[in-house]
Design a protein that fits this description.
2 domains, 16 helices, 428 residues
Length: 428
């Protein structure tokens, strides 16, 4: 573990960092070029790009998190019990698995929102940790379980890079990409479920990794497709790692039950960063009914953060007790911004092709005309340098160079569009 961390830091702060600063590092990147090596983790392209511009650009028109609450706003939601806990909080170490009250609140949340007839989730099925830590611990633990044999994972792509990288950090692992694709006739994102068994499944497949609602497209499957995926994993005795960070940001009434409610070998990753407007708390969780797997997660956490931030756990508890209010506000912001972006794309139809998202807080927009000729990376660089509006090029997801990700969850969205509009009117 220390060797991996040491190498990763040397990549970031050594020669690679100089290349990052020049900007050329990001261009023409491919999955092959940045596949995990025996020495550890590859540079995280998206995070390095954010590091370059996130605190310099005036408008982040590509962020996947929703508008962050202030601490005072969260505290105003507190009840008598949580405010007492906050006011009398000692800044000491916390329980390694997470505050029992918080784990109990998470269990109640999942059990209360599920229409399934499965046994309820209990607090011992839950491990509190930082969201990114959950990816590392979850995927690394599963891959190490099969480390003495060749193994493959099927991953919904494009994806957040760590969903592939953390799995491939173990020897004898490889990835097969289950691609979300744009239907040119319907202008909708689609995922072909028939390819799972017909093309992707082999004798070496051990794991399926999904992310719904999908970042960056906003796609998610129908309820029947979701159950088909669960059945596919059950029939083939596969682990299912379900990244549910954008859970509950559904379009309309169509909702999906959490994977961990449906399947004993499923692992749910979720947290407060995306759907609930509290990314700065760094509070997330892993859920699984597999007690041996949960024990392995807890063991690995002893070598990472050990325990969570005491203030963050109390603020997270307050947020979870106010989920209906928080979700209503997040969905309202996203709905307003989605409509504004659709109208913006119609106005600038020579530059952008609007592709609707079904859920989540992001959408992927196709470039046209001069912007497409420039390529997503060069166009995004031009925009951020000329008008201080940050877009996210699709090559950072290893998804060609024709799309940009748009974040729909910020309250200054229309101000960002106004600034971008002024630039495009001059540029076109």
């Amino acid at each position: 573990m220390l060797d991996i961390i040491s190498h990763h830091l040397s990549l970031i702060f050594g020669k690679t960092q100089k290349s990052l600063q020049r900007g050329g590092f990001f261009q023409n990147c491919s999955r092959h070029q940045f596949s995990t090596t025996k020495h550890g983790y590859s540079p995280f392209l998206l995070e390095r790009y954010f590091d370059k511009y996130e605190f310099k650009a005036k408008y982040l028109l590509c962020s996947s998190d929703t508008q962050a609450y202030t601490m005072n706003e969260i505290l105003k939601m507190g009840d008598k019990e949580t405010l007492s806990l906050w006011n009398n909080l000692e800044l000491s170490y916390t329980q390694a698995q997470g505050l029992p009250l918080l784990r109990n609140e998470i269990a109640k949340f999942y059990n209360g929102t599920s229409n399934t007839k499965t046994a309820p989730i209990n607090e011992n099925d839950i491990l509190i940790l930082a969201p990114e830590e959950g990816v590392l611990i979850g995927l690394n633990t599963i891959s190490r379980h099969f480390s003495n044999q060749k193994q493959e994972a099927i991953v919904v792509s494009p994806s957040y890079q760590s969903l592939q990288e953390c799995y491939q950090s173990t020897p004898n692992t490889s990835i097969k990409h289950w691609n979300v694709e744009l239907n040119g006739n319907t202008n909708q994102w689609e995922l072909n479920f028939q390819t799972l068994e017909n093309q992707l499944l082999t004798n070496h497949t051990k794991l399926v990794i999904v992310n719904f609602p999908h970042n960056p497209t906003g796609y998610y499957p129908t309820l029947s497709q979701w159950y088909d995926l669960i059945k596919f994993c059950q029939m083939n005795d596969l682990y299912l790692f379900s990244d549910e960070m954008y859970w509950n940001l559904w379009d309309g009434q169509d909702t999906l039950p959490s994977a961990s409610m449906l399947y004993d070998k499923a692992v749910t990753l979720s947290g407060l960063s995306k759907s609930y407007g509290c990314p700065g708390l760094r509070i997330g969780w892993l859920i699984t009914r597999d007690s041996q797997l949960m024990n392995a997660f807890r063991t690995m956490k002893d070598y990472t953060t050990i325990c969570n931030s005491a203030p963050s756990e109390i603020l997270a508890l307050i947020a979870l007790r106010n989920v209906p209010t928080i979700l209503s506000q997040r969905k309202s912001i996203i709905a307003t911004n989605t409509q504004a972006w659709k109208q913006f794309c119609q106005k600038h139809s020579t530059v952008f092709q609007f592709i609707p998202n079904k859920g989540g807080s992001t959408c992927l927009t196709k470039l046209k005309g001069k912007a497409k000729q420039l390529g997503a990376f060069n166009f995004a660089e031009l925009v951020v340098n000329e008008c201080q509006v940050m877009l996210l090029p699709s090559n950072l997801f290893f998804y060609g160079n024709d799309f940009v990700r748009i974040g729909l969850g910020r309250t200054n969205f229309k101000d960002a569009l106004h600034t971008l509009d002024q630039f495009l009117c001059k540029w076109k």
